[in-house]
Amino acid sequence: MRHRMRGRKLGRNSSHRKAMFRNMACSLIRSLQVDEDEPNAPKVPGRIITTVPKAKELRPIIEKLITLARKAIPHAEKAKELKTTAERNSDEWRTWRKSDQWQQWAAAVAPAVALRRRAFAKLRDKEAVDILFSELAERFQERPGGYTRVIQLATVRLGDAGKQAMIEFVGERDRVKSKKRSAPVVTEEDDTSTNDAPSTVEVSETEETAESVETTTEETVETAAE
Fold this sequence. Notes:
Elements: H1 14-30, E1 47-51, H2 52-82, H3 91-97, H4 100-123, H5 126-139, E2 148-156, E3 163-169, H6 188-196, H7 200-225
Antiparallel strand pairs: 1-3, 2-3
Helix pairs in contact: 1-5, 2-4, 2-5, 4-5
């Protein structure tokens, strides 16, 4: 029995699964900034295709990393106010380095640095961590959760016919639900005015009927006279 054992094994041991999801997470994050001239560049940024079980297991890993990056935003903004604009190793920078303002800046930026180190311990990729904290954190700053979605594909994987799925970041190419339009409201005054006014079709039909009756009457009189 697998009581209290969450997650899929996927036919791999723990170290293999950890390395596999680390590579998949880095691939998904790094797909946001890819040169189009590269031979294996993805067609759509921020999207990878894998099997359905792997995509479902990867989703919480990615979303926890984005939550870490979002938590670092207020600390980084607070530290930015205390940071100097002087060039590094200049006289003005050395003066700021020895002042109390630097102590305040170091205390303010410390939580952001700790969160970045935690993300790096998970990904082990500096480029992916930079994209995570610079682009994804700002992109989902006002979103409380649900940063990715998993869409199952109709085509199966060649070789073993495994069910494929696409995992991507939300916010782009989102479907817009069409609004249902209700029937127009007709008041009682509109109903009476519509019923009172005869239509042109009814008038024309009445005139045609009268003409046909007169023609039939004339033909009957002529026949009787003969």
